[in-house]
Amino acid sequence: MSVAVTPSPVRVLRTGLRPDWFVRAAIATGGLSAIVVGLELVNPIHVTSPAGRAAFETLIVLSAICTVWLLVANFQASGRLPDLMLLCALVAVSVTDFAYRAVPALAAGARPESGGGAWLCCSLIVSLAFAAAAFAPNKVVRHLGPRAIGGAILAGASIVLFSQFIEQATGSHWNAALQDVGIQGAIRRPVALTVEVVAAGLLVASALAFLRRGRRGESRCGLLAGAAFLLTAARLQYLALPAVATDWITPREGLRITAYALLLGSAYWEYASRRRARAFAAIKSERERIARDLHDGLAQDLACIAAQGQRLGAELEPEHPLMIAARNALATSRGVIADLSASTAPTTEAALRMIGDELRHRYGLEIAIRIETSGALSAGGDLDPADREQVVRIAREAIVNAALHGAARHVDVVLLQKGRDLLMTVSDDGCGITDASTSGMGLRTMRARATALGGRLTAGPGVGGGTELQLVAPARYVA
Questions:
Q1: 231-275 pLDDT per residue, tens
Q2: Which of 139, 192, 255, 440 has the smallest set of CB atoms within 10 Å of its CB?
Q3: Strands of 198-269, DSSP E
Q4: CA distances (Å), origin 362, targets 139, 319, 334
Q5: What torsion, rounded to 10 degrees, do the Cα atoms 73, 79, 84, 86 define?
Q6: In sequence order, what are the residues at sequence separation of 6 or more whose Cβ sits closer than 8 angstroms to the Cβ of residue 121?
Q7: SS3 state at 5
Q8: Measured in Å, how far apart are the chain's first and last C-alpha atoms?
Q9: What are the strands, taking DSSP E only, across 228-340?
Q10: pLDDT at 180 over 60
């Protein structure tokens, strides 16, 4: 039976984490951020350390630079509007923090941080940029080249820096009293309070949108949701400390640096996934070329030799070495073609069925393949391609052994998820495994492949006779 599968884009990063775990982690991050804000409202705290604050701001700047570089590379590779919006959001938040927090913290002296109209405007722009990245449609914008991207980044940075310059030149920044703490101090500045609450609301909406996309399988959106929750908490600290000195370290700095770390992790996740996807695509293309060459060349020649050999049946017995060699070479070449084709199949189930079809015709077996996973394999995801190849080759070797050494007529292949592990069982109705066969080359090869997966393989007599082989390995999924 043939299986028709529609190819789909591959986004791959080898990991033991499933996409829904990132969503759960983001929700936990949001809960912890709310706890931090609540504790700050009850008892605002800070530590005076000019060197420590400067170190925090330096780490944030370096993280922002790395993240921007990765986001530019991601957008150039994908051309997707959400990637462009995310790049704009990161540029907005990083330049705003650099101009209004890093520069004053790195400068000599201790004074209240600026909180004038330009700062409030930039804060609102940052939140709007995150909302745009979260709600942007997943369409491709290909007409923007590297120069346009660089121009947009410079324009955004110039707006923030020019705002800072005007604020400093006109003296419009606030000289807030550092003694103002708590909600009462925030209420004395109704405009600033309103802007901060609106900005926090936009960030919460962005986090929820990222969570929704994370549930659809976009792993990096879980990291983005966590970053948005942390930035929300950093905004809401204004309710506890309306005025912060440039040499203070508050919980806000911890929230900010953690948010930047998640933004960097999200950008690297996407960048590494695309690099791995490109490498896999190159391997897939080469395998398809080799399969075509074998099918159009060697396999055709061997088929011709085998057909011509039938005409010599009167002179050459069917078991003549020449006839055996021709049949074996033809079967081997067809097996290699099937293996290469299966390795480029879009899903694990499609690959297993392709191998099953080839072995069913070769050995006259009845092969039943069932996928019983309740996790990513049945929710739009699949195994990591490298892991999938190992799983498929183990199944193939087990079926071949059942046919050649066990004289089996029926083989069952079942793939299911068991906790965090993937369990594959191959059972047959053959004569059963013997002690001598447990050290054979085929079993050693399968065990080596299981070890490469980080799992283990066992083989022994089946409950109803025959042989039962079990593979248990960590389930690494891709979206």
A1: 999 888 888 777 777 788 888 888 989 999 999 988 888 888 888
A2: 139
A3: 248-249
A4: 46, 18, 9
A5: -70
A6: 163
A7: coil
A8: 28
A9: 248-249
A10: no
Would you say how long the chain is, in residues?
Answer: 479
3-state secondary structure 157-183: HHHHHHHHHHHHHHCCCCCCCCCCCHH
Sort residue 154 into left (φ over 0), alpha (ψ -120 to 50) or beta: alpha
Helix (H, G, I), strand (E, B) or coil at 108: coil
In the three-class reduction of DSSP (H, G, I as helix; E, B as strand; rest coil), residue 17 is classed as coil
Q: Say how far residue 450 (Cα) sits from the centre of its chain.
A: 23
Residue 341 has φ and ψ, to the nearest 5°, of: -65, -40
Query: Has residue 137 got a pLDDT over 70?
Result: yes
Residue 373 exposed, middle or buried by CB count within 10 Å (0-12, 13-18, 19+): buried
pLDDT digits (tens, 9 = 90+) for 19-69: 567 788 888 888 888 898 888 888 888 888 888 888 888 898 889 889 988
Integer Cα distance of 395 and 453 in angstroms: 14
Whether the Cβ atoms of residue 228 and residue 203 lie closer than 8 Å to each other: yes
Mean pLDDT of 324-335: 61
For 403-409, the CB contacts below 8 A with 24+ separation are: 403/359, 403/363, 403/365, 404/363, 405/430, 405/437, 405/440, 406/430, 406/431, 406/432, 406/433, 406/466, 406/467, 407/431, 408/365, 408/466, 408/467, 409/364, 409/365, 409/366
Neighbours of 323 (CB within 10 A): 18
Question: In this structure, are residues 457 and 447 in contact, taking their beta carbons and an 8 Å threshold?
Answer: yes
Fold of 347-479: Heat Shock Protein 90 (3.30.565)
* Backbone angles phi and psi of 331, in degrees to 5: -65, -40
Q: Could you tell me the two tokens for 204?
A: 């919460």
Please provide the DSSP assignment of 316-378 as one string: S-TTSHHHHHHHHHHHHHHHHHHHHHHHT-SSHHHHHHHHHHHHHHHH--EEEEEE---SGGG
Cα(257)–Cα(227) distance, rounded to whole angstroms? 10
User: Which tokens in the block code for residue 22?
Assistant: 């990132």
Cβ 125 vs Cβ 92: under 8 Å: yes
Tally the C-alpha atoms within 13 A of residue 330's C-alpha that lie toward its C-beta. 16
Cα–Cα dist 141/66, whole Å: 23
